[in-house]
Amino acid sequence: MQYNVTVIGSGPGGYVAAIRCAQLGFKTALIEKYDTLGGTCLNVGCIPSKALLDSSEHFYNAAHTFKEHGIDINEPKANLPQMIKRKAGVVKANVDGIAYLMKKNKIEVHTGVGSFVDKNTIKITSKEGKQTQITTEKVIIATGSKPTPLPFAPFDKKRIISSTEALELKEIPKHLIVIGGGVIGMELGSVYARVGAKVSVVEFMDNLIPTMDLSLGKELLKVTKKLGMEFYLGHKVTAVENKGKEVILKAEPKNGGAAIELKGDYCLVSVGRRPYTEGLGLENVGIELDKGKIPVDSHLKTKVDTIYAIGDVVRGAMLAHKAEEEGVLVAEQLAGQKPHINYNLIPGVVYTWPEVASVGLTEEQLKEQGKAYKIGNFPYKALGRARASMDLDGFVKILADKNTDEILGVHIIGARAADMIAAGVTAMEYRASAEDVSRMSHAHPTYMEAVKEACLAATASRPIHM
Q1: Can you tell me the mean pLDDT for 350-369?
Q2: Is the model's pLDDT at 460 over the cut of 90?
Q3: Which CATH superfamily includes the segment(s) 354-460?
Q4: Residue 7 and residue 297: Cα distance in Å, rounded?
Q5: pLDDT over threshold 90, residue 2
């Protein structure tokens, strides 16, 4: 079996790379170790977590906001098994869709672990141990990442769990302890808080979602406290122990003070993810990892001229859409085209409610760079649309160059922020000024009016509705 391009890994980066290669006329193979396509994102990541987030939000609204809307119902009960079942159906539909796209684009799928024999030969080992070999002109590594355990608290998959197990719980926790106040911890923590669990979040940094603009983390802290979530910021976890039906966590303030002890029935460890490169046989082609990641050049080519790598196994944010863009970039380069990626304009999203979304530079980064900037803020509570939907929490924050007015960062926390951030990406891709956006007509009433008003605030400190 000979191919022009072989992709190892069928997550968003891998399957998109395979499709684009096939569209460009390459005979393409896709190797996936699991029986289903889609990788972490479709199977145990982005898609299933959003399904549970949506289900829990519906439940929360039924319990807390329906009456205000004039909808009288009996007291709702959270049916977690049905939520998990619905999530599984959503996953299956998406996975089946990827399988269809492989057939449509005549991509040959091989199930098993792909490892290098040499730079043009890949051995595929099935779960039954059967081995086959294929030859290929080019290879794209897209094997993704997996959850990072704490050295003193390995995942037992029963009480000390990763995000994978958190998506399959058989019961609503009485007390869920979450280690890590980043994206995964806040998303899954909010799922279980909304359906009635006590949730405690322990975070080493002094802010939630610390990689984003600090103002977003401060607002997210405020609004998620309304769910009853408890937070221990600036705390270092020192021990986690499974006591059978109970988990005991010990932590101490990193700047000194009294230690704390938390007891819960589950502990979700969400302190990040690490590249998954086991079994690739990189040593057979002379590729050495750098801090766990595969080194690549600006074209995403490794030191071996036939081998490329994309997504979570290379530098940069571990985001599905970043991996997709890189997959397309490599495919189009192989076809002689000249694509580009602006890594500063890869948006980040947290799918809590309200949602959090960000693109470009944060205020902290601008200060660090010594760049002169101005700020435009506009609160959701001043929006007619937000009042109508009762989504009053949050704001839009625009950062613009003080001298040129070019938009340097867009940071949103509020209803539909995940969709709204695309407007920020578009504006910044075309290097729009805050005034440019403020002079564009925005439909009324919409949440997007907050972006226009924030740009007005940045341009001339003259928002209309505040």
Answers
A1: 98
A2: no
A3: FAD/NAD-linked reductase, C-terminal dimerisation domain (3.30.390.30)
A4: 18
A5: yes
pLDDT at 191 over 90: yes
Q: In this structure, how many other beta carbons lie within 10 angstroms of the beta carbon of residue 36?
A: 17
For residues 51 and 86, the answer to whether their CB atoms sit within 8 Å is yes
Question: Stretch 49-60: mean pLDDT, rounded?
Answer: 98
CATH classification of 160-271 is 1.10.260.40, yes or no?
Answer: no
Reading the block at residue 186, the tokens are: 């806040």
340 given a catalytic annotation: no
Asked if the domains at 2-147+274-343 and 160-271 fall in one CATH topology, the answer is yes
> Is it true that domain 2-147+274-343 has CATH number 3.40.50.2300?
no
Q: Are 422 and 415 in contact (CB under 8 A)?
A: no
How much is the pLDDT for 290? 97
Q: Mean of the pLDDT values across residues 160-177?
A: 98
Residue in 58, 69, 444, 465 annotated catalytic: 444
Q: Strand 307-309 to strand 131-141: parallel, antiparallel, or no bridges (unpaired)?
A: parallel
pLDDT for res 466: 82
Q: Which residues of 111-150 are buried (b: 16+ CB within 10 A; e: fewer)?
A: bbbbbbeebbbbbbeeeeeeeeebebebbbbbbbbbbbeb
pLDDT digits (tens, 9 = 90+) for 124-155: 999 999 999 999 999 999 999 999 999 999 99
At 181, list the tokens: 């106040």
Q: What is the pLDDT of residue 284?
A: 98
Q: In what order do the strands lie in the sheet with 235-242?
A: 235-242, 247-253, 260-264
Domain ranges across the chain: 2-147+274-343, 160-271, 354-460
Please spell the DSSP secondary structure of 29-71, one letter per residue.
EEEESSSSSSHHHHHHSHHHHHHHHHHHHHHHHHHHTTTTTT-
The H or E element that residue 385 is part of is helix 384-389
Provide the pLDDT for residue 461. 78
Which amino acid does the sequence have at 322? Answer: K
Q: What is the mean pLDDT of the chain?
A: 97
Question: Beta strands 108-111 and 28-32: pairing type?
Answer: parallel
- Amino acid identity at 313: V
User: How buried is 108 (Cβ within 10 angstroms: 0-12 exposed, 13-18 middle, 19+ buried)?
Assistant: middle
One-letter amino acid identity for 265? D
